[in-house]
Specification:
- The protein is of the alpha/beta class and 339 residues long.
- The chain has two domains: 86 residues; 211 residues, no CATH class.
- Helix content is 54%, strand content 8%.
- The chain has twelve helices and eight strands.
- Strands 1-4-8-7 form a four-stranded mixed sheet. Strands 2-3 form a two-stranded antiparallel ribbon. A two-stranded antiparallel ribbon has the order 5-6.
- A hairpin with a 2-residue loop joins strand 5 and strand 6.
- Helix 7 packs across helix 10 and helix 8 packs antiparallel against helix 9.
- It is globular and about 55 Å long.
- It starts with a helix and ends in a 13-residue tail after the last helix.
Length: 339
């Protein structure tokens, strides 16, 4: 019974992912290029890309969720209705360039059985590929920035790996989903981004622009810096002993420090002449758009400060600007006070 439930849940996930991927592909095609996705343009086209990028966008949702391991589906009965649904999912995915036919591997003979595929093929649009390249270049600039800062402190910077994925992926911190937005997993020291988030950031949150996209990535890299400095571990240990309100406050402090670290990266971009007019305003607009107070107000019509986990719009703006203006990570100690 449990196996049948797992199989049906997997089919639901595949259906949702297929729809999401199809919608995003349509959206990419209609936008045409990153110039339409983002406002102002950083001077990034002639810069080197990072060597620390893992592109999983062409993998199927089932393969990414590791169902050939812990959630093995081979030999589980779906029944006639489940089989029909599965066929429709596979056909729909194929229309949009995603090959889920391995799901049909054991359907012969009317058995209604499935086995999990480990990979699939997909077609990315030129606009999406260009944005992927921009993200890789932005990651390289964070590597250069933090390598210099760590070197000045007599330490060596170990870069994070950026994982690009679509819809859902496997991580050392559990299964990651695009609905979570970009995130950092301290257990495998990787940053995870579904590029469709950049579309959502502009369409739903009102953020956008190349530098704003770079800010989002630099914020997640900031969590990696915290991990290397031992700050992440200290926060996790303190959170385990804290009540919900204090745990939320610790989370806010950690997130605001990552904003400040992103500002330190932005300071270096300005020094190198990469930024153009309007870039800083784009990042500030994005920082404001993703404040807990604004998101809560839009979602529920009210604001509950004790439930904040990332900080208010004003706080996020303040700490990003502090890092941007100083260029000094030593000015980013949010744990001494965030206001």
């Amino acid at each position: 019974m449990a196996g049948l439930k797992a199989a049906k849940n997997a089919a639901k996930i595949a259906a949702v992912c297929t729809f999401a991927i199809a919608f995003n592909a349509w959206n990419w095609n209609n936008r045409g290029s990153t110039e339409n996705i983002s406002g102002g343009k950083m001077r990034w086209e002639d810069r080197d890309e990072s060597s620390y990028v893992e592109d999983r966008r062409s993998q199927s949702p089932f393969g990414r969720m590791g169902m050939g391991r812990g959630m093995r589906l081979g030999g589980l009965p779906l029944g006639r209705k489940g089989t029909i649904i599965l066929l429709l999912i596979v056909l729909g995915a194929g229309f949009f360039g995603y090959d889920l036919t391995p799901l049909l591997g054991e359907l012969g003979g009317g058995s209604g059985m499935i086995s999990a595929p480990q990979s699939s093929s997909s077609k990315s649009t030129p606009a999406e590929d260009k944005l992927a390249r921009f993200t890789s270049v932005a990651l390289r600039t964070t590597e250069d920035t933090w390598s210099r800062i760590f070197r000045q402190a007599g330490r060596e910077y170990a870069p994070t790996t950026l994982v690009l994925y679509s819809c859902v992926t496997d991580t050392a911190c559990g299964y990651g989903q695009s609905a979570m937005g970009p995130f950092y997993c301290p257990l495998d020291r990787k940053v995870y981004i579904d590029l469709s988030f950049y579309q959502d950031m502009e369409r739903k949150l009102g953020g956008g622009g190349d530098f704003a996209l770079g800010y989002v990535l630099a914020h997640e890299v900031g969590h990696h810096v915290q991990n290397l400095m031992g700050i992440g571990k200290e926060v996790r240990e303190a959170t385990e002993q804290a009540g919900k309100s204090k745990a939320n406050r610790l989370s806010v402090m950690q997130e605001l420090q990552a904003d400040c670290f992103a500002g330190v990266w932005g300071h270096q971009m300005e020094r190198e002449g990469i930024l153009e007019s309007g870039d800083l305003e784009e990042a500030l607009n994005t920082a404001s758009a993703i404040g807990d107070d604004r998101l809560q107000k839009e979602a529920t019509g009210r604001v509950v400060p004790d439930s904040f986990t990332h900080g208010s719009s004003a706080q996020r703006l303040r700490w990003f600007k502090r890092g941007f203006q100083s260029g000094d990570p030593g000015q980013c100690n949010t744990f001494k006070g965030i206001d």
